[in-house]
Amino acid sequence: MSSIASSPPATAARAARTRRPSTLTVYRWELRKLVSQKRTYLGLALVVILPLFFVVFQNVHTRHDRGADNIFAAQITQSGLATPVLMLLFLSVFMLPLAATLVAGDIVANEDGNGTLKTILTRSVNRGQVFAAKALAAVTYATLAVFLSAAVATAAGVASWGFLSVRTFSGTVVSAPEALLLVFASNAIYLIPLLSVAAIGVLLSTATRNSAAAVVGTIGIVILLFIVAQIPGLEGIKPYLLTEQFENWHGLLRTPTDWAPIAHSAWVCALYGVPALIAAYLVFLRRDVAGG
Amino acid sequence: MSADAAPPVKARGLVKRYKDVLAVDHVDLNVRAGDVYGFLGPNGAGKTTTLRMALGLIVPTEGTVELFGRDPMRQGARALEGVAGFVEAPGFYPYLTGRKNLELLAALDGDGAARRIGEVLEIVELSPRAGHRVGSYSHGMRQRLGIASALLRSPRLLILDEPATGLDPAGMRDMRRLIRRLAEQGMTVLLSSHQLPEVQELCDRVAIVDSGRVVYEGALSDLRRQGGAGYRLRTTDDTRALEVARLQAGIERVQRDHNGLAFQADERAVGALSLALGRASIGILTLTPELATLEDLFFRLTEDGDEAGGVASAVVEPRASDDEELVPTR
Description:
The complex is a heterodimer.
Chain A: H1 23-35, H2 38-60, H3 71-74, H4 82-91, H5 95-104, H6 109-114, H7 116-121, H8 127-161, E1 166-167, E2 173-174, H9 176-208, H10 211-230, H11 260-286
Antiparallel strand pairs in A: 1-2
Helix pairs in contact in A: 1-8, 2-4, 2-5, 2-8, 4-8, 5-8, 5-9, 5-10, 8-9, 8-11, 9-10, 9-11
Chain B: E1 9-18, E2 21-31, E3 36-40, H1 47-54, E4 62-67, H2 72-75, E5 83-86, H3 98-109, H4 117-123, H5 139-151, E6 157-161, H6 169-184, E7 188-193, H7 196-202, E8 205-210, E9 213-219, H8 220-226, E10 229-235, H9 238-247, E11 252-257, E12 260-264, H10 267-279, E13 284-291, H11 294-302, H12 305-312, E14 316-319, E15 322-328
Parallel strand pairs in B: 3-7, 3-8, 5-6, 6-7
Antiparallel strand pairs in B: 1-2, 1-4, 8-9, 10-12, 10-13, 11-12, 14-15
Helix pairs in contact in B: 4-5, 11-12
């Protein structure tokens, strides 16, 4: 900076600016930040490697499908489209919530710890815009994790066992194109409880200002709800536990489609997700930014 | 009052309390357009907390702060129009390059800030390293990137918290030159610093805080003048001169050291002393006035009460209604 004094600074005083950036601009930069971080790929790797490993394992060890507990497990080598359904069954319980939480739990706390939150909050964007962009980025990441996992499982399954018809939970045979549509729809429906988990992650990230605490806390809540579901005498509250909604998409794979559990899941998840998101927003608006 | 006519920073009764800890205690600040305003205080005095409140990063427990007449807590980003700076170390994304960090911040500034990236990188001489990740930057480079990110906004008010911290002597010198140059262009600068020579060199007005309270706010020259005019005296017989000076009315804080005598007095008392020395047949070799340094005054104001007494009586602070006139507060 030795020639600063001789440089002609071009920072003459200007009138107050009038054009401020949109929330979409802030959101785009949140995505660019995500793309630039290794942690982002860790979560995605978690949900991609397992389907690949599963397919490779199934190919190496030719198994008899008869006798499997689950109807999709029973037809795993009969149609490649059984693979994404079976993977969603496995991953929906823990791995996908973990992947979503890795970003949601970190998205505010990490910036607070690094001192970058104060940097972006002293620019020309309001706190509400920053929060909206961060929440949207967390939602985008969770959605990407779910559909990337489904795409990899579908591609690997179809490559191994063909694009063939499958039987649903109710035993009805559906054509391959229809099954593909159902795979997509099942993952979309599963997003409802997953986004509620992400909302809890964002709340803890905002409130605790500590990434590890937010991630562990969110996963801890998921595990706690699983445990509560197993406690004798608490069967009455089981339909209202967030973790029970992880199976909400099963209704799509019945003939006729059973919409009741999907509708139930939607409002139960809203009871968890919406207050968490509103609380996170209010905390974010009023919190002291003292980190870094 | 329009934003153009309103003062760059006006804080009234600013308080920040953390449970039992009073971090900032009814602070009033008056930064006027064109000021290079020094914000001084020991560690933990409440400087950074005050600056965070000014930038809307933390919520005051009591009081208000306005930037160009706008309250950051009520008006959010709009209140920061024309304002830039950083508190503590500037924060950047270590996994992005310096240029990408500036692109991000320019995107959050809007209004064509992105077009100035090359220019501000040149000003802080970071262009050659702009393509490297910030994680690989030294502390000094991050400070310079902090200045660059502030200049992206073409601010009318620049708030800098310890900008020279961690810089080598050449970096400190360059930082001072930059600040002086920006001030010469008409930019108002609010500079928090531990570097007393830096403040003495750069600032025309100062606030000194101690334990969360402003113990002085006003012109640096007034502070130095009211801190007491000092004199240094060398005579043909310093031992006898010391006895004469101690007996002379109006001569205070007389001390003798290897350079002669040091004392405080007004001009009339100095004249009387020179006559008394003549009557005692003591020759005056040199008699030179010495203004108190900012460091002397700073320690007198912020250290223990006995030491502070000499200056505390001269502490002045602008009235809320009239920033131009200084009035005693205690």
